[in-house]
Each structure stands twice: as structure tokens, then as C-alpha cells.
From TrEMBL:
Protein's name according to its UniProt entry: ABC transporter permease
InterPro entries: ApeP-like_dehydratase, HotDog_dom_sf
Taxonomy of the source species: Bacteria, Pseudomonadati, Bacteroidota, Flavobacteriia, Flavobacteriales
Amino acid sequence: MRTAVDIQNYLPHRPPLLMVDLILNVDASFVETVFLIREDNIFVSNGVFIEAGLIENTAQTCSAIVGKKYFFDENGSENENINVIGFISAIKNLKIHQLPKAYDTIITRANLVSKFEGDDYTLCTMSCESLLGDKKLLECEINLFIQKTISTVVS
């Protein structure tokens, strides 16, 4: 896929915890996202996007690969009443080289290293990097656990 896609189609996150604007590219083993850091972002302190924000941006980028499995069926139709929960189970070899500032636009890329799928959950390891232009901001390996839950409609 080479067209920009709204990340909200792939993640349960919503503002103010949404740390990705668009998916620029996604397939079964690679994802690339873009994020404009706004001054009022909850992870901006004194005009700087702090480490926790970079890590959350990276985790949400990684989740897009796994999340699409649950939100869309094999024909590309959206699955209704599906929610997912997920968390970072490990971060390895984390290196933060530089912190971006408010109004910077960062690109985050992740490659799937390994994946295990159960009936309603996925465990995966992703190799990640975040960039500001040609400057590397972050690099790491992230393990994610994502689980499908069924929504119930209350009337």
C-alpha cells in the first residue's frame, strides 16, 4: 500500500493519546508512519517531545501491522464490534539519539522480525526507527501483545 491511510482505522487509540497521524506505507512485514508533534501534545515538555512520546509513537506504528488483521477481513471490509487491547511486553536495545521539538514532523518505520498468532491474540517483535529528516531519533526492538475483544452493544 503506498497511499496515506488514517491510523485510526488500525488502532483503538484516540486523541490525546494518538501519537501517529497517517500510515504512509504498510504491508505484512513493514509499516511507515508520519506524525506532526503539536505544541499541546501531552508528551511535549518545554517545547520538546519527551522519550515516552517517542516510544508511544513507535509502539503505535508497530501496532498498525498487527491491528489491521483484527479490524479488516480478508476482503478488506471493516469488522464491526471489534476492539483490541495491546501492550508493550518488552523493549530491547533502546537508543534515543535526539529528541524532536514541537512542530517537527517525524517518520517512524518498523519491520516485523517475528510473529506468533493465536486464535484471538498476536505476539510480535518489531525492529523500529524514528527519523527527523535524515537524523535518527530512536532505534529499538519492541515486543507487542495484541488481543481481540468483542464489543457488546448496550441498549
